Amino acid sequence: VEWRDGTLLILDQTGLPGRSERLAATTPTEVAAAIRQLRVRGADAIGIAAAYAMVLAALEPAAEDDPRGHVERWAVALTAVRPTAVHLSRAVRRVLAAIPADAWERRDRRAAAALAAARAIEAEDRAMSGRIARAGAKLLAAATAVVTHCNTGRLATAGDGTALAPIYLLAKRGHGLRVYACETRPLLQGARLTAWELAQAGIDVVQIVDGAAASVLARGMAQAVIVGADRIAGNGDVANKVGTYPLALAARAHGVPFYVAAPASTFDPAAAAGAAIPLEERDPEEVTSFLGRRVAPHGVAAFNPAFDITPADLVTAFVTDRGVIRPPYPGRLPADPPAGSQAG
Ligand code: MRU
User: Fold this and answer.
1) Which CA distances in Å does 165 have to 91, 101, 151?
2) Interval 318-329 mean pLDDT
3) Ligand 1, residues at Cβ distance < 6 Å
4) Which is the closest atom of ligand 1 to the Cα of 229?
5) pTM beyond 0.90
C-alpha cells in the first residue's frame, strides 16, 4: 500500500500473478472492502491498510458533526472485517490514541495526527522484518530447503516479510535456499503470491499442493518448516492460515523443526490460549469453487475456516524481532504492547 495525497493506493493481490493493478481508495469504506476481499491481505499489511483507513475516516465530510464518534465507529467496523489477525485492532486503536483531545474538532489536525501514527506503524513494520530476517537466518544457516505455507513476504508486510524475510536475507548473502511453497487452498496465496514474489526475486521456489507437504518432509527434502502467524496466544498457541496445523503435525512426525516467524506485535496475551482467538470463517463458495469456477456439485455444503490453531507444543521456536524464543514458553513470550510495533 502507498499513501499519496489523501489516497491509499493498494496493489490488488487478487489479480496476481497475471494482473498487477493498483486500486485507489479515498474512503474507509473502500479500504474495508479491499481488506474483506483480500485485495490487501497478510496480518501486517491489513494492519497498515486499516491504519490509513482511519486517516480517511478522519478526513470524511461525515466526520464533521461528531468527529470522534465517527472515527471510533470506523475503528470498530474495521476490526470486525477480519477478526483473526491482532494487527488490525491494534493498529486502529493506536491511531485513535494518537489523536490529541484538542485536535478532534479540526479536520487538518485530527487527520495529521492519524497520518503520523499510520506512517509510524508502516515504518516500524518495515524495521521489524529486518530483525526477524537476522534472527531467522541463523536458524536456517545449515538448511538447503524449507517448506512454507500461505504468503508471508513482501506482499504481506511493509518489508521483506516474516517467514520469508530470513530467506531473502540468506539469498542476499549468497545462501540460496529452495522453498517448497504449499499452494494454500482455497485462495492459493502460496501458488499465486509466494511463488510469484520469490520467483521475481530469483529464489528457487517449488510449488506443492498442501497435501504433498508431509511427503516432502518424510523424504527429507526440507530441513525446516517456517510459517508466519496472525495471532499468538499467551501460551504460545498459533493462529495462522488454515493448513498450518497439519503442517506442524507432519513436521513433528518427521522430526523436522517447525518455526513460527512473527513480530512481537503478533503476540496477544489477552488470549490465554488458542481457543480464545476468533477464527474467521469465509464464504463456503471459496471452497466449492476453484478460481471462480464451481467444482463441487450444487447444493453441497462447505466449511471454510480461514485460519487454524497450532498448539504451542508443536512449535520448535518463535523467530521474533526480539530474537529467537524457545520453549518452555510461559513467561518468555512478549507480553507487553511493544513500543516499536503495531500495538496501541
Ligand atoms: O488470509 P490471509 O492471506 O490474510 O492470511 C495470511 C496468513 O495467514 C499469513 O501467514 C499471516 O498473515 C502471517 S504473514 C504477515
Assistant:
1) 22, 39, 11
2) 98
3) 41-44, 85, 150, 152, 156-157, 162, 189, 228-230, 240-241, 306
4) 13
5) yes
